[in-house]
Amino acid sequence: MHDRVREQLKLHVYSLMSTAEFKNGTLNLPDMLAEPRFNQLQSGLFSAVVSAGKEVWRSPSYMGKGKFSQLHSAPGVWTFDEFTEDNERFYRMMFTVIWEHRKKELPFTFVVWETGEPYEAQIRGFETTLWSWLGGLIVSSVVITFLLLYWGFRPFSALAAEVKAIENSERDAIDGRYPAEVVPVVINLNRLLGHERTLRERYKNSLGDLAHSLKTPLAVMRGLDLADLEKSAPLMQQQISRMDEIVSYQLKRALSTAPALASQGVPLQELVQKLIAVLQKVYADKAPQFETNLAEGIRIPCDEGDAFELLGNLLDNACKHGSSPIRISASNDERLFRITIEDSGSGIAPEDRQAILLRGVRRDEQAPGQGIGLAVVADIVSAYGGELEIDQSTQGGACFRIRLPR
To answer: Which of 1, 268, 276, 329 could bridge across to 293 with cysteines, CB 3.0–4.6 Å?
Structure first.
């Protein structure tokens, strides 16, 4: 503000000097000045000319008594200051010029001062306008924010309504139209709902299959002659074993389709060490050797029970049908977990690689088992949305590669 006042007052001083005339040692100014406020009494803009501390001219707007004897301004130098009079602030500009008369130098100081009220009023007006705009901007921002939040959360309200309808059995899936940001949530929820329906259906089917499968052994046992236990005992034992196999098969079939979707994974190195310790006792006569290449801290992204079934069946199969050394390697990245199990046995013929994944199909009919192990492995991998690949290992035996999404 001071810069503006200084420039404005300087222009007024220039205007006064341009109208001043010096004749016969006297400085004269016109009665009426170009600036109307100089001609209007108490207009707030005043001017005077001082020489040797005495007033030689004043503008019609000023009727007071000026303390001109205290004014000082070096010739050719602009002097700007501010003062207070009757509790009112004024801004003042002075400039001194020299006129020569009879070889004497006569100094004349042109003084212009103005009340600070107009400038202060402008500042107050500017502040009022500024705060009005800022207040309006704040209110508008709050309103816009609430509107954005309202519109932004509307899809979640609709989603909550659809989930409530699913809870009330009014619909089977979420099928509304949602913004791209919400679509992944909808897809995952529908996937979870589909997974739960699949589980319920699979459990129901497993129970039905179990009941149906047990009918024949029970019918055979019902027809046995209990009076001749010596004759009936072998057949009874055979049917009991058959029933045990059926129950084990159906339990594995049900459990293999129940992956823990929220699992944080199982430490792979610890799991593999536990399995190796067990298998070395079970197959002590073969004394299997294992070679592992597992990154520190790597986790297999599935439920602990499923992980035991998955790796346990593969390693058991390698010990049963393959030869040492059995190699286990694993790696992962942001998308996939990969594990490879290789042995040094006779391998698996390409034409048999898909067939052995079917339930009840065994590569070696002479070896003990029900042909369930690899089928369970395939079911678990499929339930987690992964891939199972059977190939020939670099050692000539079988190679099982598994890829699971993380």
So the answer is: 329
Interval 268-319: pLDDT, tens: 999 999 888 888 877 778 888 999 998 888 989 887 777 888 888 888 888 8
Per DSSP, what are the bridge partners of residue 290? 326
Side-chain half-sphere exposure of 374, counting CA atoms within 13 A: 27
Residue 123 near residue 9, CB atoms below 8 Å: no
Please give the Cα distance from 153 to 178 (Å, whole number): 11
Spatial neighbors of 259 by CB under 8 A, at least 6 apart, are 302, 303, 306, 380, 383, 384
The number of angstroms, rounded, from the C-alpha of 146 to the middle of its chain's C-alpha atoms is: 21
CATH architecture of 2-115: 2-Layer Sandwich (3.30)
Domain 266-405: give its CATH superfamily. Answer: Histidine kinase-like ATPase, C-terminal domain (3.30.565.10)
Report the greatest alpha carbon distance in the chain: 164
10-37: pLDDT as tens digits: 999 999 998 888 887 788 888 888 889 9
Distance CA 301, CA 316 (A): 21
Which uninterrupted H or E stretch holds 113? Answer: strand 104-115
**Nearest-10 Cα torsion for 227, 229, 231, 235:** 120
Q: What are the angstrom distances between the C-alpha of 148 and each of 113, 142, 144, 176, 182?
A: 55, 10, 6, 21, 16
DSSP code string of 381-392: HHHTT-EEEEEE
Q: What angle do CA 116, 58, 72 make, to 5 degrees?
A: 70
Parallel/antiparallel/unpaired status of strands 79-85 and 54-58: unpaired
The residue to which tokens 């899809």 are assigned: 155
